[in-house]
Amino acid sequence: MDAKTENSIRQEQLESFGRLMAGFSHDMKNHLGIIRESNGLMDDIIAMGGCGEDETSVERLRKSISAIERRVGIAANMFHHLSGFAHRPDTPYSSFQLNDLLTEECVFLERFSRLRQIDVTLEHEKGLAAIYNDPALLQHVVYRLYLLSLDQLKSGHSLIIITGQNEKNAEIIFRLVGASQVSLEQLPANHLLPAINKLEGILKIGEVTEDHTDLTLTIPSLPLAE
Amino acid sequence: MTNAKLLIIDDEVEFASTLCQRLQLRGFEVTDVHSGGEGLAILSTIEPEIVILDLKMPDMSGLDVLEGIKNHNQSIEVIMLTGHGSSASGIEAMEKGAFDYLMKPIDLKELLEKINSADENRSKA
Question: What is the DSSP annotation of A45-58?
């Protein structure tokens, strides 16, 4: 099979997977909707005195209702981002807001850092211009760089992901706080270069201090397709 | 609080009937049906003032139902419910005449605010 056909099959596979995930996420939101409304109805009934005067039971029920509501809120937010994430491969090239793209992805990345006890924060520069590029491919590169960054850090260290703009290019800085003197050679990032090249981006080591090392990914806004 | 007459059209029976009960407990006159076709058929019987309409249903799309509602009576305000990940589908519905939209799972407080605004909008017209 030639490389072009193989690439096209992979693209279709990715799109199918995205559509399946989007459908799944849509259904899950419906289930959450039913859980939230049923929970809300119980709360309404309690508020109307439907559980009698037993204050201890009322208090316990209210506590459970509030826990269910809180978890539904978290799950709904995750599925909301999953829908967006799953739809990204629908249009290989499109205009997108870098901050939205990273917020969407970081919802899923958070657990990797939590398990390693590494604190991750996202620092958005406000008012960034939208860029035209391949958002699904950029999310793939960000995911890999995120994992590579975590590999350089230890429990108690932190990773700060900073967005910015450099002329017409979008910039993502992975600030590895606690890791100094990291070189590109140390990072097994070579396998990412074809993807970064496809984005027409550049990966380099930015600011290095005793306290931290910056890994900087610069992504241009490509000319709009005819 | 408004006392507008409401119609819920959503194919998720449990969701529609539970939401219906919660709105009834707040004093609204509410009917729920579970398909687009049923929703359009019942319009002339109950003459709702505000319709809460799911965007995606098996028998017909929410956008087609929206068009049918507006053809029946232009003054009925429609609040769309969408399970999509982006606001694009809600915005498209508003361009086609919906008053507003909410993402699923909905927040009842937010829905009540939108019902109030929709009713105020109706009164002004």
Answer: HHHTTTTTT-HHHH
